[in-house]
Amino acid sequence: MKRKWIIAGALACLLALTACQGKNDPAPTPFQTDLVQDMVEAGGFSETLEELDGDTAFALYKLADYGLVREDLTECAVLRSSGATCEEAAVLIFGGEKGGDAEAMTQVGQALKDYVQSQIDANTDYRPAEIPKLEQALVERRGDTLLLLVANDYQAAQSAIDESSR
Amino acid sequence: MFHGSRGRWTAVFLLVSILSLSWVTVKVRSALLPVPPEGPGMAYLRGEETKDQSEDLTAGQGEVQPPSGEETKGEGAGQPASEEEPKGAAAAYDFSQPAPEGEAVDNSYFEDAAFVGDSRTDGFLIYSGIGRGKNLTSNGLSIFQLKEKKALTIEGKKYTLLEALALEQYSKVYLSLGVNELGYYDDEGFYLSYCQAIDAIRAVQPEAVIYIQNLIPLNEGMIAQTTGRTYLTNAHLRVYNELIQKVAEEKQVVLLDLYSSFVNEDGELPAEGSKDGVHLSKAYCQQWLAYLQTHTVEFETLYPDGAPRTGETDQGIENGSVIE
Fold first, then answer.
1. CATH numbers and ranges of domains, chain B
2. Interchain contact, B131 vs A81, CB within 8 Å
């Protein structure tokens, strides 16, 4: 009987500890548009990238095909190679109803993954040296913000991401 | 009538006088005719070149008829037609020359335009700020592959660019291909394939103005530093541009002379215009857009009697250039 009480007590402690752990685990810091420039300064890219505006980014990533409207993309910072390489960095921030909609944000993540795949398909024969960069592409969601990264030096770019997350 | 030595001299004198008077009359008439305005939607005359063009446009159709209510087109705005000028003489568009510069259109002009091309055109559509137009491009595409390469996927189905072009109707089709072909060393094949491409485009877009853009120069130094593709030379590119001009004249499509707009004094694309010597920077894509905005021509100006049918204008080249 005593043994049963000990086991039950241990389980209760374990559950309590687990619950505390969840409460104290901070939500990841949403991506900020400054991060794109931080990654540039950290040396993540091999060339000077060109800036794209929100309208162009919305069309480039085909977000309308994934159920979004232009107004959902409230802020962004996008830098992209004009053709010499496939390097690219984008922070997309969404607002309104879609911004708080986990399903919509999952769709945006899928849009970015599909975009990367289309880049791989389009460049396999044309820019084969760029394919390893595309295969390592990073697509990450934090709340209503998303990061897309195709870098020349992922370690350098990651250091900027880590720094911005502190 | 003119017998003897004196009579013969009199006849010669009269003949020379008549010829001189005729020549003077022609010259005076040409001098009095005002220079026609050039610009979007305006027909323009280029002296004696117009005669041949008129004949080409109206083969088998009798006298050229200008568009309704435009009898004075080419005479200058508000100017009455000269009494000696035969009525109905059309101001034929000179397809052998680049489109003239005119007043800039805004980007809504490109709403119903399709852009067929390679990675350069893809870059143009992304970086120029045009924000409109159907992107029918494929990296590394050449004119030789236009009919075969299933380069686009639309709703899970693969299409060639020409098949994709046929899915919708456009008022303008901009074609820009040629850089990837520089490695083939097949100039005649390039010309014939280009002619075939025009026929194929016209077959599916009979009401569209077809613009063909000659090749923007390369920066060979930057190419050597980056991709090292030695076949990409401006010397060969200029040969292709001459062929593209020939295609424009042969197929009666609008030639856009981007080369002259971008070339520097060394015959190259300026180094600041590209990171790899081929693909244009954002600023140069915007310059490209500015060129397109100021070089537009109306369909009615090009073809007052309706567009030539596919293969109708292929005199001078082999029949093999006409596709089914």
1. 44-76+88-92 (no CATH), 107-321 (3.40.50.1110)
2. no
